Amino acid sequence: MKNVCIGIPCYSSVAHETLEDYMRFAYHLGRRMPEYNFFLAIKPKSEQFRARNAIVTAAMQMNCDYLFMIDDDHVIDWKDTQGPNSRYDFLSKLISHMEDDPKIGIAGALYYHRGGDCLPVVMKEGKDGGYYYMRDDEITHGLQEVAVQGGGAMLCRMDTLLRIQQPIFEPEFKYGTDIQVCQKVRDAGFRVMCDTSIVLGHVLNRREIVTPETRTRIMAESSSGGGDRSQFDYVWQTSSAYHMFYLDALEHLGFNTMEDVTSLAMQYEKMAHDFPGRDGDLEEYYRTRGKTQLARQVWFHGSKTGISNDGLILSLFGDGSKLLYGLDWACGSSPVGFELALRGHKMDFVDVDGGGAYEFVKWRAKKRDIEKRCGWEIAGPYDFILAMDALEHFPDATEKAKMLCSLLKENGVLMTNYFMLNDVENVEHISMDRESVQKAMVESGVYPVNQVLWVKRNLGFMDKKE
Length: 466
Prior knowledge:
15 helices, Rossmann fold, Spore Coat Polysaccharide Biosynthesis Protein SpsA, Chain A, 21% strand
């Protein structure tokens, strides 16, 4: 009996359409495919490549013959038949393709992008060596060889994955994880296939599913300016702020293009083997990362995740009519905190002296002539504190959280993404005890508004009575 791992890289929330559909899919696998043992590996992702590598590791540990990776935003039975149906047989069909041809290393299903163009997520290789999305007229609606199969619905032969260059998935500096693995599989002499007769739905952010029957209308609505305008507004605002951050970083690094930044950023990942662990000299570790640290952060903050996260924080400050006093703690390159200083807020920036990213912030303050608004040590009390991508890097995260809470004014706000992070595969994330940190913050009189915003309040009715 062969073993099959179902691997799902997952964010913190999943659409109800997907949850219902995947529950029915799991039931189908158990009842209709008894000739296989199925295992489940759901790995949280802040950065996709780490989650996918963790899924491969889990499949290896379970001695699986096949690994099927499916994203957390698909719907298999998008016609919503609410009963047993042949759509859930697609995995059996993909496995059959592989068992019929041992040279197939990857086989997947067709789905469409959630963006306004709704492109099919399969790619061909151009004469220039680049990768291009296939046109509708190139889709055969059967089993066809492709250069890249979308990673959102990808069956992998485990023997093939064990033969290709390691690590299988790397940071998405140049290519996404799907292009990376397909390129490595093809280089190893295996074929990448897509059965384009199998079509999965793709759930939009507004909880609508992209299918062959809806994509034309969605494309038309997108081209006419539909969609979530508030999302667009703050992303545009942050993109503008990021552009200035990016240009300053290029100048500081002595580079001309993002390709140069990307090449340097890749070195940061390769240096991770130097990480001393929670009991080592962490300050020395971060100090010696040099400009690779800055390059890595420039790349991350320019990614879709970075732009979205930074935009969310900046959007909370409104029109800036009221100037505040803030702390950006463990600030790194500080694209958000520095933007707030540019807008007139007084800011203290604190990190490891000599660190590549922190020295960039100091250089940038001089370049932009805002040194009078910037401090370089903890003072306070503060109207707000930014602790973004910060607490998880400290072995004493609970004590650090208490310290930050003590620095807030009454009704001051602490902003942190600590409670949203799921990236436990990152070796630098050494403290993920959310329960202890949350308890310490509440005991310090700082209470959650949501996962990101915490407010310091004197709630007298919560005081213990004698």
